[in-house]
Automatic annotation (TrEMBL), chain A:
Subcellular localization, as worded in the UniProt entry: Cell membrane
Xref: NCBIfam families: PRK09881.1 (NF007376)
ABC transmembrane type-1 domain ranges (all copies): 91-280
Alphabetical UniProt keywords: Cell membrane, Membrane, Peptide transport, Protein transport, Transmembrane, Transmembrane helix, Transport
PANTHER family: D,D-DIPEPTIDE TRANSPORT SYSTEM PERMEASE PROTEIN DDPC-RELATED (PTHR43386:SF1), OLIGOPEPTIDE TRANSPORT SYSTEM PERMEASE PROTEIN APPC (PTHR43386)
InterPro entries from the UniProt entry: BP-dependent_transpt_permease, MetI-like, MetI-like_sf, OppC_N
The keyword Glycosyltransferase belongs to this UniProt entry's keyword annotation: no
Recorded topology in the membrane: Multi-pass membrane protein
Protein name (record): D,D-dipeptide ABC transporter permease
TrEMBL record, chain B:
Transmembrane segments: 12-32, 103-124, 136-159, 201-219, 258-284, 304-330
Family note: Belongs to the binding-protein-dependent transport system permease family.
Record keywords: Cell membrane, Membrane, Transmembrane, Transmembrane helix, Transport
Gene3D superfamilies to which the protein is assigned, alphabetical: MetI-like
Organism annotation: Mesorhizobium huakuii
Protein's name in the database: ABC transporter permease
UniProt topology in membrane: Multi-pass membrane protein
InterPro entries: BPD_transp_1_N, MetI-like, MetI-like_sf
Domain ABC transmembrane type-1: 97-327
Location of the protein in the cell: Cell membrane
Principal localisation: membrane
UniProtKB/TrEMBL annotation, chain C:
Subcellular location(s) of the protein: Cell inner membrane
Superkingdom as given in the UniProt entry: Bacteria
Pfam families with a match to the protein in the record: ABC_tran, oligo_HPY
Bilayer topology: Peripheral membrane protein
GO molecular function, one term: ATP binding
Keyword Metal-binding: no
Domain ABC transporter: 10-261
Lineage, top ranks: Bacteria, Pseudomonadati, Pseudomonadota, Alphaproteobacteria, Hyphomicrobiales
Protein name: ABC transporter ATP-binding protein
Provenance organism: Mesorhizobium huakuii
Keyword ATP-binding included in the entry's annotation: yes
Main location per the UniProt record: membrane
Amino acid sequence: MAADGIATSPRPASRLRMGRLWYRVKGSPLTLIGTAIALLVLFVIMAAPLLAPYPPDKISLSARLAAPSLQHLFGTDEVGRDLFSRVLFGARASCGIAFAIVIISTVIGSIIGCLSGVVGGIVDTAIMRLMDVFLALPALILAMALAAALGPSLFNAMLAVAVVRVPAYVRLARGQTLSLRNRTYVKASRSFGASPAYMLRWHILPNALSPIIVQATLDLGGTILTAAALSFIGLGAQPPTSEWGSMVSSGRNYFLDQWWYVTFPGLAILISAMGFNLLGDGLRDMLDPRLGGR
Amino acid sequence: MSLISTILRRLVLLVFVVAGVAIITFTISHLIPGDPAQLIAGDKASAQTLAHVRQELGLDKPVTQQFVIYVKQLLSGDLGQSLRTRRPVAGDIALFLPATLELGIAALVMAIMIGVPLGVLSAIYKDGPVDQAARVVSVAGISMPVFWFGLALILLFYVKIPILPGSGRITLGIAAPPRITGFFLVDSLVAGDLKAFWSSLYHLILPAFVLAFANLGIITRQIRASMLDVLQEDYVRTARANGLSRSAVILRHALPNALIPSVTLLGLAFGDLLYGAVLTETIFAWPGMGSYVVSSIQTLDFPAIMGFTIVASLGYVLINLAVDLTYMVLDPQIRELG
Amino acid sequence: MTEPSGDVLLEITDLSLEFRTYRGPIKALNGVSLNVRAGEIVGIVGESGCGKSVTMMAATRLLPKGAAHITGGGIRLFGSDPMKLSERELQHVRGRQVSTIFQEPMNALNPTRRIGEQIVEVIRRHQRLDNAAATSKASGLLRDMLISEPERIMQAYPFELSGGMRQRVLIAMAFSCEPRLIIADEPTTALDVTVQALILGLIKHKATSTGTAVVFISHDMAVVSQLCDRLYVLYAGRVAEAGTTASVLAAPAHPYTRALIRCLPGLAPPKQPLEQIPGTLPDLLDPPAGCLFRARCREADDRCVSVPPLAAIEPARRAACWRRIEETQAA
């Protein structure tokens, strides 16, 4: 009861908000690290051709399985390709596929969820019961089965993981929609005869967006892992594509003697997944201080 | 929401979920590019053999009829025949399931035994060094590629510092205990074979830890968050104001209330565990369902993949049902009113 | 009238305390002094946010660690400084010698444990009793709280009881180890008016029959005046006025006290319209200079730009208002 009863003099709301944001970020070095890693990953994806000292597919049989050195920072693989260059280019496949999955499932899920919430009635019930069924199943196992059935390729793996992630976003978006639908301004809009499409575009979507974005960021880390794992068991990227999961998979045959082959692609997966997880955590804490602890 | 109506609701959902699994796996089987009959009969089969196989599998009938046959087979426990092992899939799964369960249970126990105390300490000493360390560990757990972590640990504890076995369930040369439950730890004790018991236990340590590590992070986080919530509750303040010892406040008043909402997490953790087991078993050559399904994927053995999917989904659904019921029994408000 | 002459149980001298937030320190207490003697019932009155609960939670060290910082003054609880006690020593003081009844009875009991277990746990923590003896003691305590079937209540979970019933359980728990001091922090605020009178009666009766001192925290002048021997009126983290209940009500010395009394139907002089106090509490993040009540005071003048001390105006009466202090000095 100490602080809440004390009146405060009016302050500019935006300044207060920025101040609070900065206060939280400053107190959370992990969020800063996460942001830095995420930015680094984005930079590597864009600048891979500039940063890589060799073309990722350049075979050099004279330099097979070379240990890390100044010529080859991360060493080379069994046909002499430079692992540093392959790891850099791998960011495109490994993180690119994760972005694609999250974007596809977020967009589709949000549209279905918002529509379901706005339309309501029997359509809503039918959609939500169907989603309940999906959510009651182990998503990653289904993704694996689906990817296997579609045939092993990076594109099919992406499709399979995106499909099984849709229901979670449907539920999130619908929950947001329902809570917004009962707000006074939306009710007012409906009483003026606004169509569902209009309400969706102008009232529901803009306001439901921020929790969905937080969830999407949180999911990015997990999706990077899933995509890499599918490639590792042979369902995603196929050799010779530079992709971290499939690099670990090929490196596995040499890991007893050539430790660097599996180590660097694996570290790349770990670090980038960690970066997005930290960033997502930080975003969530800032939007919902109750969950955050700070 | 009373206990009985909730159970009924869940059972109805269960029926739908099972039907959903059947439809999904059936659909996926028909998505498969190429002719299943060709896959089974092999590339060199004659047209006559193909027609025969097709008839045998009922592939010449309309799709709806095929689905009815499929469901009938499922209900009688027939998951079809594996293309790779040429044995019934149901039998294969029954053979490999105990190894996966043994690994999964060991991992879950490990994750809970480390994760719960870590989460509690993390909440009590919020923002202190323990909390910071626990946060790093849990983010690392959530972000760790299981397959790579397994390789790294094998390299460390089997190759560089050889103190733990890196593959299999039991040392070569030690006979596996006679199969009763399929759990080596249990069977070896029943047989009184301590040598096999210790060997199985040794073999379990690394893979179980790898599998536990990811869930460790999730459990630590959940416990930390709900402990922080509970520690702010008025009844914790009452307990402190009445001079109860720190351990009584934490262990008897805060922790039980923090654990109840965390129970539901166990069911979800099981899903991750199943998926993680697929990867862990591959790395550690652990002869369970995970290794089985990965080999099946690599040979495009669809009956085996779908059989695994059905069994895994059903197990997941049933475990979540059981967990939710446990949750309701643990919460006196629901229990007494139900 | 002179102050009662029992042992001083709690003595707070010039206590200042702040909460550190991202916007800067909030000066929640600013030189609060008060004392409580054995056997008396002392009221602390003021609006929400004036520092009533904070003062008493500081005395029992129940404020959240890290957030609150004592910046001046001192506390002596049963002759020792609670800030210097170890966690273990503090546990033997809490519950055994001083216990607290909080405002919100709804969540003040552990939802997953039976009522009986929770009372027995407190009794057995502080007294050498076996389970059976502690159980029968608990049921006696509940009976004292006019609970007719204590055995049935002890088997119940908190959610099965009404708010008033839970508060009676908490009062029984607070009295269970015969403490010398009980802090009752707005114990009736969350309850129905009809239950309030019963609860107040139970506390008063139990306290007088056991000789327990009570600090009664309330925003309600009417409740405090019925119950307490002495009053402290707090305003914005400072003591505005202190004295015996009778003398304060008869001749309130501080304009804030007068305003509080005028707000109440039962206490205000008859045939006068009820009043409300204009304005709100000052911002304690950035408090104005001088008397903190100045902005809301109808009698404020030039003197009020400096902070008035809490000065004796009569025997056993103190007030922090320049007008009254100078009147006293003149007389």
